[in-house]
Amino acid sequence: MDLRSLITLLAVASIVITLANSLYATWRVQREVLIGNTLEANRVYATKLASTAEMFFQLAQPQLAYSARLLQDGLDDDAVIVGEVERLREQTNSFNSVVVVDAGGWVKAVSPESLKLKGRHLATSSTQEALKARKPLIGKPAMSAANNLVVFVSTPVWSKTGRYLGFVGGTIYLKKKSILNELLGEQFYRDGSSLFVVDGDNRVLYHQNSALIGQKLPPVIPDPVKQKNQNGYLQVGEASREPMLAGFAVVPTPDWTIVALKPTRTTLAPLTNLLMKVLQHSVPFALLTLLCAWILARLIALPLWQLARKASRMDAAGVSKEITIIRAWYYEALQIKRTMLAGIGLLQDKIGQLKFEVQTDPLTSLLNRRGLSAVLEYFLATRQPFAVLALDIDHFKRVNDTWGHNVGDEVIKSVARQLSASSRQTDVVCRNGGEEFLMILPGAQRDIAVAIAERVRQQVAQQTLETVGHITLSVGVAFWDAKGEAMEQAFKQADDALYQAKHAGRNRVVISPATDDGSVTPPQSG
User: Fold this and answer.
1) Of residues 458, 356, 366, 373, the one with CA closest to residue 420
2) In what helix (H) or strand (E) does residue 62 lie, and over which residues does it extend?
3) What pLDDT score does 1 carry?
């Protein structure tokens, strides 16, 4: 990949990453804003309704208390009692029905009279609670004597002498038209939101779904949260529920809780359109930036690209003139240009020397792999068959570990001298790396190649080296006839034969491919 592509790729990556970060940041910020605004709106909405409901009870209880004071002379005057319950119900419209009950639980008067409760003994839970408590009371939802689900609000009636006479109470219907429905029923959303009211036991007092009224629900707002704050908000919804944004407020007098809910999904619905608009406005600028980056990348990379092309031809004639005319318009390219021009002369002077040195092993002065490659290219071009000997010094690691690498180097140089002395004038000797050597015997027949391999092995084995003593060689022999298989196959066969010689006991010659009369030449004594 060239520099222009790299710069362009970097620009594209930067633009894409920046755009993605911007979209993500926008999404996060807008999501938090939408959720925060909805939560706060629900809290304010619930607080407003709670304040209205609290105001109702603050007005309703004094109304009942006023009637109770009017009745403190006794509950025997039916005209006075009936007139008071009618006034109380019709004057304020706060209650669906109003009743006066004596201390024994008998109804002295009721409005409206259509309920037909006068003279009856009330044994409902709300009535019994009011008779027992003898104090202003807002009862829990319960079925009335007229078989209506109601909330009963009552105030005791005391005589002037302090004797308990009974109570005066008003009912608020939960499933029929009432002041509670008028306060809450007109307040609704059209986007999937809902509003409901629960008492202290999480029993539903109002809900848009009338089937839930009177039932107990799992607490949406945990009690510790309500105890800590009279109003607030939180996100609710478990794995089995749709996530909702809830605002709540407590009505202090009756200990009711008003909860306003809105689905999180509905709240975040505008977010997708917002992101699409951001993307639509961002993409044109991103494309314009990308075009500018591509043009700038081309201008930056052009002189370096031209210099790089000339760098691969620094040994060619006239390359200095070609480099001189390259327009290097910024500092780094100019310095590279000057350095290339300064180095061309020195490079060309050393090319000849380098070509020789690069093909020679510095330790043994034998050809290295690069030098061997040049020879093999010649053999391949002239289709010259040859035998290849792969040679390896046995137990050479032991020499290095015992006497050190300096002695090991002396052993390698000694073997290299023996190989050169044992080879023919046309043979090629190469150090293949470490303690491994190769001998190329051009035109050598099988018997000649084996004889040379055996002669080399014996001469090395018979030589006594200072410090080390005797060393031995393992030799693998293979042939390339220039007619069939690839040249690399012959070297692989020689390596395989060398491997067999090692595993057969070392200090021997193995010929590949194996012959019927035996491919392993065992070491000779003496």
Assistant:
1) 366
2) helix 3-70
3) 66
Helix (H) or strand (E) holding 398, with range, is: helix 396-403
36: CB partners within 8 A, 6+ apart: none
Predicted confidence (pLDDT) per residue in 240-292, tens digit: 578 889 999 998 888 889 898 888 888 888 888 888 888 888 888 888 888 88
**CA gap 520, 176 in Å, rounded:** 112
**Which of these, 80, 82, 122, 125, lies nearest to 102 by C-alpha position?**
122
The β-bridge relationship of strands 137-138 and 149-158 is antiparallel
Q: What is the DSSP letter of 211?
A: G
Confirm if 85 and 77 have CB atoms less than 8 A apart.
Answer: no
Neighbours of 390 (CB within 10 A): 27
Which of these, 463, 381, 474, lies nearest to 435 by C-alpha position? 474
Q: What is the pLDDT of residues 43-68, one digit of tens each?
A: 998 899 888 888 888 888 888 899 89
Distance CA 496, CA 514 (A): 11
> What pLDDT is attached to residue 350?
60
Of 306, 298, 437, 305, the residue nearest 367 (C-alpha): 437
451 touches 469 (CB < 8 A): no
CA-CA distance, 426 to 423, in Å (whole number)? Answer: 8
pLDDT < 50 stretches in the chain: 514-518, 525-526
Q: Which of 187, 334, 303, 172 lies closest to 249 in space, CA to CA?
A: 187
Which of 3, 1, 14 has the alpha carbon at shortest distance from 333? 3
Report d(CA 93, CA 78) in Å as an integer: 22
C-alpha 167: how far from its chain's center?
67
